[in-house]
Structures are given as C-alpha cells and as structure tokens.
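Hi all, posting the design record for the shared folder.

TITLE: backbone redesign
STEP: 1 of 1
STRUCTURE INPUT:
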C-alpha cells in the first residue's frame, strides 16, 4: 500500500480528500501545516506527497524545497487554488511532477498518482539483482524477495539498500551515503537516514544471518553470507 503525505490546511477539503484517497487503497497521512509535515517526514517514509501552497508560516513552495532536498527521488504534486502561470512555473521549477488547480477532479488526481507511482518500463526490463543472504534484491524494480514474499521499497529505500550492497561486509561511510543520496549532512538528513536504515533492518529481519550494523560515528555495514 503506497503511503501519501497530504499537506492541506483546509479542514473540510483535507478531510474529504484524505478519506477519498484511503478509499482508493492509499495510506494517507493528512497534516495541516508545514511544521506538522516536517514532523511526519521524521517518523515515516512516503511514496508521494500532495502539497497545498497557501499555508501559514512556511508555505507549500518552501516546504517543497526542503522535501525535494531530503527526498529527491520521491514525487510530489502541488494542489492549489493559485492558478496563475507564474505560480505553476515556480512549482515545476521546484521539481513538482504535476500542478493541479482547485477545484479538482478526484478521479483524475488518483489516475495521475498511479501514473507517478508506476515503475517505468525501462526499469522493469533491467535485470540487475543482489543476493543478500536468502533475499533477492531487485534495485531497479524496488523489490526485495524472500521466498514467496515480495516487499515493495520506496525509491530512497532501494537506493540506500543498493549502496549498502555495493559495500557488502564493508563500511559504508555515513558521510558518503548522506552526500550521495540526500545531498546534505545536516541533522535533518542524518535523522532521515536513520529512519530508512530502521526500515531496511525490519525488511531484512527474516534472515538471522543478515544484519545492518551501526559503526558509531562512522557508518553502517551490511553483513551477509
């Protein structure tokens, strides 16, 4: 189930849209301010974000700049009453995958979300894999296979796991991973990385021979046979 962050300060519209998205088999986290959104990012990983623009304190454009820096591979969509061309151009320059103006067609919005979350055909045809103990990892498909079970990873999870695989049984320096995947070594990025490492540990917990060890102050080691 894909996780969506919905940043919308209108209580009525936010409630209706979040309920509709949940009915379409998404797991929606609705936040009413950018500050709440930043806290949500610290707690979990999202597959896509839907961002309002006109918000108190930090607006949607400012939030998107932070979001893009911390999660460059995660698509986001602006959803706003601001319909001027200059606003739409600004949104796309910030890296938005789409800019939807209110009032919206919920069915069309969901179709756009599915299109953004759908793996590309090019990625699906690539065959690069990694053996991690009894797991098979397909980085281009964002899939981790364990026997008959398949875990779907986010783009950031897949990138981090692939980097760990490339340093299998060796130290992956924290600074290298932060710079390569987050483009920053600030506290927010470090906390974000720790969250992703926690998720990967959970995914790999079915094989006792596989572990991700933390080397204090230095980085991580993916240990596997």
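Okay, here is what came back for every position:
SEQUENCE:
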């Amino acid at each position: 189930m894909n996780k969506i962050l919905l940043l919308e300060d209108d209580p009525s519209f936010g409630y209706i849209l979040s309920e509709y998205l949940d009915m379409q088999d998404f797991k929606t986290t609705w936040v009413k301010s950018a500050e709440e959104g930043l806290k949500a990012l610290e707690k979990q990983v999202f597959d896509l974000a839907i961002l309002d623009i006109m918000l108190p304190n930090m607006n949607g454009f400012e939030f998107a700049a932070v979001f893009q820096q911390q999660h460059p591979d995660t698509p986001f969509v602006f959803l706003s009453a601001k319909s001027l061309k200059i606003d739409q151009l600004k949104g796309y320059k910030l890296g938005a995958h789409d800019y939807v103006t209110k009032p919206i067609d919920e069915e069309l919005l969901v179709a756009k979300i599915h299109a953004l979350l759908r793996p590309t055909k090019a990625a699906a045809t690539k065959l690069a894999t990694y053996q991690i103990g009894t797991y098979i990892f397909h980085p281009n498909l964002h899939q981790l296979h364990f026997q008959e079970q398949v875990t779907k990873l986010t783009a950031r999870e897949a990138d981090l796991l692939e980097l760990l695989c490339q340093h299998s049984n060796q130290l992956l320096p924290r600074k290298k991973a932060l710079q390569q995947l987050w483009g920053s070594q600030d506290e927010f990025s470090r906390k974000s990385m720790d969250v992703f490492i926690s998720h990967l540990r959970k995914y790999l917990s079915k094989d006792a021979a596989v572990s991700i060890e933390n080397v204090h102050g230095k980085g991580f080691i993916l240990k596997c046979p």
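COMMENT: Residues 120-127 have pLDDT under 50 and may be disordered.
Let me know if anyone wants the other runs.
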